[in-house]
Amino acid sequence: MKLRLLFPISFIILIFIIGCEPDPLTECKDLGDDLLTCECISELAIEKIDTSLCEQCELKEVRNSCIADIAITTGDKSICENAGESKDYCLHTVIVNSRNHEHCSDISGEYWKDLCYTEFAKNLTNEGLCEKITNIVTRDECFSFVAITKNYEDLCLKIEDPENKDLCIVRIAVTNTDISICDKVGNSVHKYGNCYQKIARVTNDPEICPLIKNKTIRENCENLFK
């Protein structure tokens, strides 16, 4: 008889204990500050991998970030569709983490799409991915990085900005101490001042100086060896 009584009493006590355990979501909502509440909810949502908890946050930016973080954590880019203004950032991060550049085209915004192609182009030293970049400045920087990394000056010729194109070629020429590469530089100041003269100094070769056609730069070069 005593054993029969002990079981229901123990069961009731267990239910009471469980019922007394604080609800994490309620604790977050009781913080009394919207930002603190949303940050608390976000941590809980990410821990439980539950985007419905993110919806409990009343601050749009934090709510979107919460959903994006869950997508990034799980690697599920379909979740990014619900991340509002954080959607493109979310897609970019999930795609980069997946190491599949073919999905960069899924990003609609120019900034994050270009950044996606840029990161893959640099990681893979793939100039073909640089060509997919819309922003000219970003694309030029991508070509420059790949050209210098591959030590291949002809890739510099894909750079649209004349100044950056010349500087890209100069850097490769100086790295290889090869004045024949300098002849691909368009601007005479960069060609002779930044290229010929630098190689003369690096190689400690005064015989390069007479090859400089610009008189002022040639004299500056010759003065290096006096």
Structure description:
By secondary structure, this protein is mainly alpha-helical. The chain has 13 helices and no strands. Helix 9 (136-150) runs parallel beside helix 10 (162-176).
Question: What is the structural class?
Answer: mainly alpha
Order of helices and strands: HHHHHHHHHHHHH
Largest sheet descriptor:
none
| End-to-end CA span | 113 Å
Radius of gyration: 31 Å
- The total of helices stands at 13
Query: Which residue ranges are poorly predicted, with pLDDT under 50 across at least 5 consecutive positions?
Result: 11-19
Topology:
Blueprint: H1 2-20, H2 24-29, H3 34-48, H4 51-54, H5 60-74, H6 87-98, H7 110-124, H8 127-130, H9 136-150, H10 162-176, H11 179-182, H12 188-203, H13 215-223
Helix pairs in contact: 3-5, 5-6, 6-7, 7-9, 9-10, 10-12, 12-13
What is the structure about, briefly put?
Helix content is 66%, strand content 0%.
Structural features:
13 helices; elongated; mainly alpha; 66% helix; 226 residues
